[in-house]
């Protein structure tokens, strides 16, 4: 099977996220979402995977600091180790407030905006992302696909919807998770768990 271009898979993830948001029952937006976030906060946080692409497209980088999507997550893991957890929670809540009175319409508009901006981009530019790191657009987009897939599942679970991301998105995200695990030295643990030999340790995560 030929791998789909990163832009196409990201577009599939963005449309899948918008479709999921349309299905959230009106009475469930203030329910518990993930950790300290409500469902609305979690949707707001997830929407940042659209907002950051739009923002970083306007931030060209002069050098490549991160080789690929795996390298991005390995770097972010260290970068976030010293991050202010309260500030991260608050960014999610601010993103929720930014959704406004009609979060469904806001998400639909964000998807249209960012995909239109991507269509206007020629080639594979270097962009500057979190922490001032330079990375190719084609390497950054899979990280946003990953976030949309994982948090899409979080949202669906929180509101009791039997909805999963599109197959191409799941395949891309699962493969990236496995590659991150290998890069972090937990490849054997992942492989044994995925083939039914053992279970994953409590609290195990590649991000």
Tell me about this structure:
By secondary structure, the protein is mostly helical. It has one domain: Up-down Bundle (Four Helix Bundle (Hemerythrin (Met), subunit A)), CATH 1.20.120. The protein is built from eight helices and four strands. The strands form two sheets. It has a two-stranded antiparallel sheet. Strands 3-4 form a two-stranded antiparallel sheet. Helix 2 (39-56) packs antiparallel against helix 6 (137-159), helix 6 packs across helix 7 and helix 7 (167-183) crosses helix 8. The protein is globular. The model has no long low-confidence stretch (mean pLDDT 95). GO terms for molecular function: metal ion binding. This is Mycothiol-dependent maleylpyruvate isomerase metal-binding domain-containing protein. Residues 11-156 form the Mycothiol-dependent maleylpyruvate isomerase metal-binding domain. Pfam families: MDMPI_N (PF11716).
Keyword list:
mainly alpha, 4 strands, Four Helix Bundle (Hemerythrin (Met), subunit A), 207 residues, globular, 8 helices
CATH topology: Four Helix Bundle (Hemerythrin (Met), subunit A)
What coarse outline follows from CA principal-axis ratios?
Answer: globular
What integer value in Å does the Rg equal?
17 Å
Q: Main sheet: which strands, in order across?
A: 1-2
Mean pLDDT: 95
From the N-terminal CA to the C-terminal CA, the straight-line distance is 27 Å
Alpha-beta classification: mainly alpha
The number of distinct β-strands equals 4
Low-confidence blocks of residues: none
Beta-strand content estimate:
5-15%
Domain Mycothiol-dependent maleylpyruvate isomerase metal-binding: 11-156
GO molecular function: metal ion binding
InterPro entries: DinB/YfiT-like, Maleyloyr_isom, MDMPI_metal-binding
Pfam family, one: MDMPI_N
